[in-house]
Design a protein that fits this description.
Elements lengths: L5 H31 L24 E6 L3 H9 L12 E5 L4 E6 L5 H13 L5
């Protein structure tokens, strides 16, 4: 028979169980998050561009900034505070004179946020 170090085997088993629980927890959290996330009410309807006469900028030049501090940057730009339950997911700001619009997001974002901010580039503060 091989000598068995009970202490080492016990530690290894505990690590294996801990990593397994962590993996399952992350998997279940991600699955839960995707089924309960809902877009803002303004994004629930199909988007139809406003007529050119009602746009803030008819044909804006777009800039897209992906920032590591995207949440904090957008909080400063918009004045929306970061709380334990809420934070600005993206933001857009525009310069009518230069016909420019800049969209800012954190490193990881979704197409729905980009589309929402792009709409701001054309229509300005459409839901504020």
């Amino acid at each position: 028979m091989f000598p068995v170090d009970i202490e080492y085997a016990s530690q290894t088993l505990r690590r294996f169980i801990a990593w397994g629980l962590l993996f399952c927890g992350v998997f279940l959290l991600a699955a839960c998050e995707t089924t309960t996330m809902r877009p803002p009410q303004v994004d629930m309807a199909r988007f139809v561009p406003a007529p050119e006469s009602q746009r803030v900028i008819v044909q804006p030049k777009l800039k897209y900034l992906v920032r590591q501090d995207g949440y904090e940057y957008c909080a400063r730009i918009t004045g929306i505070k970061i709380t334990p339950t809420s934070r600005p997911m993206a933001c857009a700001f525009w310069n009518v004179r230069r016909k420019e619009c800049t969209i800012v997001t954190p490193l990881v974002t979704g197409y729905n946020y980009l589309g929402h901010e792009l709409r701001h580039c054309f229509e300005g503060a459409f839901h504020d």
